Amino acid sequence: SPKHIAATAVSVTNMFTMIGGAIFQPVVGILLDLTWSGQIANGMHIYSASSYTLALSILPIGLLITVALTFFLKETYCQLIT
Known about the structure:
Blueprint: H1 6-34, E1 40-41, E2 44-45, H2 49-56, H3 58-70
Antiparallel strand pairs: 1-2
């Protein structure tokens, strides 16, 4: 990014990191609820290991998407962009 907006670029990157956490947590919960068998013990939902595997599979999928997107970043070889 150009030097005069470097701090803004870092801030936006940090914002996306925090938004990712805010998005992935409810999505994992929704996926768990979609695969819930209806079993309850002591007032708590009981999920199978396959439900957790499916719900948490979005994390490595998100990582793979992120790695794929890095190929679209422009390398500046430590030169300032003006």
